[in-house]
């Protein structure tokens, strides 16, 4: 007890601010060389020392430190002693003072000081446990680590290196600084005593192999920083050896009379000691490199891999003679193909400093050729900020530069901006001497004119014509003056070319207009394009002023120029579409303040002419949006624009009614000209109805007449039907918006209700149309209308809209489902209706797939929001495996959302889908099918995937899983065998599928399900052992398995495919044990859940620990499909990801696999094809190079740069 109190008292350190007694260069160095080493050894032992050795303290086991010391430590100014961890955490003390205090403590009693250092590393990992002196003396490192793991606070996955907040902001830097200063201050004596470094390296190596992420991350960082400090020590030793050798040679070359033999002997002794020190440093570095680096550089956690690569880059640059060779470069080369960008960036940063150094460049030739660095990565080095970059012209070829140019289209904005700066410097920053005389010229004659043309040429040559916004954004910061020279761009489009100047071609003019539009949008909105930023940021006052100035400049210029541009390009749909977007970024007040009303009238006339000339949907919608932007009631120009818009709509509506009356006349067959006139007018009206409320023109009646005639006659052109459906949809939506925003009468509600239901009936009729495009349009609109007019319409206090709620009947639900099955779940080659026979074109296939995904997403929304019955999802869920690559993400998200709505009903739907597949197989193959057939195996695999989606919290899904088994058992015994009870029921094989869900049952529920199963079994069935009864026997065994030895927690799971069990020591919880006891007693009743479905409430999910124990992994390897880069995070239910139906699965990876014990080694999938490293290959020893006059090593190490060589060595 006295010893324990002493240990606890000695585990605190003062926060020391004053100067130390030793300088940073000579701290604790014995100048005379007498006490430089307490011992000597050639290997750095990783094992723990015995109790006898540990008892040998530096000063006899801890004498008092004098009157000014308490428990062996300084007391200054009355400040209380603080733990070493707290001092480093605060980061306020000079680190050298902190280290000096520890070193002084180590001199008094090295065991107690080393114990404090061990607890420091444990605390830095976030562990609340304390290593006692008794544990330190009698337990091995693995036992200590296991003990600390059991005392880990598993309520949170945070630890100091990952914690947020001001107090942890500088913890990592202070932690790394402490390790560096510790080695620097101990480099002359203590690190050679064969005790301190051996113990620390052994501890860090053990912690780095822990399955607890906090231990592994913290210890790896500490070990890598320790290695970096040792590399610096080794470098200093090498320099001292060279200096000593030089002094020895100089003294020996003197004539005998002037030669000092004593000095020669002293120099020889000094060189011998330096050599011994260097050998010990080599041993220490070998222990860290082999014990930590070679395992952690491919850790499952990207942060840990990044730490390793960052530090090895420092070693190669700091001590290139020892580390800059193929034996160490190979690790960087392999990691360049890492799956995480932050790790690849560390590789680039490490290599960048080497390639920029001319002296080191020659050592990279083999690495460059082996890993093809010259064309894949060298181009990226110029995108990373460095202090003194070499000129790119010295390294990059023209081909390399082109590789950099294309990065302006990267989705990662920092890379794109750096590439934009590179592009600007290479192609735009050089100015001809002739331009000096025309700097003040503007427009077409300005010096920017040629640069704008160059930008257009580059854009066209890149062949990425849909990404002009990305190009502009990449160059926005470095070429602002060029990109904002709209006057020059406008002159190039409107003015005639000068003498001898080649005019722009049609493609070049289109490209220039697109670039000009993107620059105007960037200036007006002040945020990157979609995909380049996380969202709109708050602008500073300066940025807001710049934005207002730019909008004013844009409006003043293009309010005058836009009508001219529209007049010149009025027949070109692409150019007009882009030009018509410019008014969206105008400051409309300038039309009045600048007296530009006549230019507004000219603009409105041009827009009207364009509407009359074009039938292209994009052009018409651009015109509609322009009218919408100009019709702003806040500005005085509203009346002028509103009158022009009303006149245009009046003419279109009158023309449409007149044409429709002639088109639908009885007894006359309409010709193609009449159909074209009706279609073109309907397109214009539909485009305007999208953005404008045209309710006063009563378009519902004429569209209804048109659609009804199409149903009756069946010969209506498909495009007319499609646009009539869309226009009627807009009519209903605008009426709903009008009723919602303002007070409405009962008559308005009834009229809208009647129109909506009649329209739904029309759409339902068109679901059976012979034309696929018409059916797709009717289906999409039906899903939207059903979604809008569902029970959700009353949310937000809109109870007055209850009469509008519309629930689809069973026939409509069935037709919607049939459409999905017929038009979505089809093979790619069968879909030849949506791409005009051009299915060989990859772009057309992608577009067709995108359309099918949207159709499926529209129906799944109806399921998720309970607009249609949940059991209709069974036909969707059963396609999960077959169409995983195309729709797996959508189906899986639908499962997740339906489970949140009703766990039991979702489970019933899943089992229903399996029953449907089983029945389909029976219809195709009969009851005597082969259970090893691919079809039956596929159904079992689908059941396994379904089981994995239930997760690990078995209490949360307890009742749902029980109901699933209940339905499955009833289905299996539903059809008795006509040949009698001696033969198995016809669906008995379904129990083989149902057994995939047995692992999700709690132990007590397994017994209950078994009792329920016995109700369907006869005595003869239990005695049967023939092959046809195997499904029953295997299902019974799955229910009986784990009855006695199932020690699994209710919140942990066992993978159904044999993954490792997560073992941990949980804290005592009396309430939890009581609850489990009650549930076991209640489960003894057979009718607990068998006779009722909705009475039980699902227990609240207990928080799942995010940390695992440090119990060693099973030696068995995971299957390839179970290997993964990291641990699946256990998210609480209320943190579900939003329903995103636009994501697409990229592979058939089991991303819904159960979380298993954390595999701390990264999967080797996706690496270089010829790389197949083992876990324990024999890595080359660190062999420091000889000094200039040092003798060569006798043993040459093999070249491990070739991966095949690694495999040869690892076998041995």
TrEMBL record:
It comes from the Eukaryota. PROSITE patterns: SCD (PS51425). GO terms for molecular function: chromatin binding. Residues 37-49 have a biased composition (Basic residues). InterPro entries: ARM-type_fold, Cohesin_Scc3/SA, HEAT_SCC3-SA, SCD, STAG. Its main location: nucleus. Residues 24-75, 1176-1212 are annotated as: Disordered. Residues 234-287 form a coiled coil. It is found in: Nucleus; Chromosome; Chromosome, Centromere. Residues 293-378 form the SCD domain. GO terms for cellular component: chromatin; chromosome, centromeric region; cohesin complex; nucleus. Part of the cohesin complex which is composed of a heterodimer between a SMC1 protein (SMC1A or SMC1B) and SMC3, which are attached via their hinge domain, and RAD21 which link them at their heads, and one STAG protein. Component of cohesin complex, a complex required for the cohesion of sister chromatids after DNA replication. The cohesin complex apparently forms a large proteinaceous ring within which sister chromatids can be trapped. At anaphase, the complex is cleaved and dissociates from chromatin, allowing sister chromatids to segregate. This is Cohesin subunit SA. It comes from Bubo bubo (Eurasian eagle-owl).
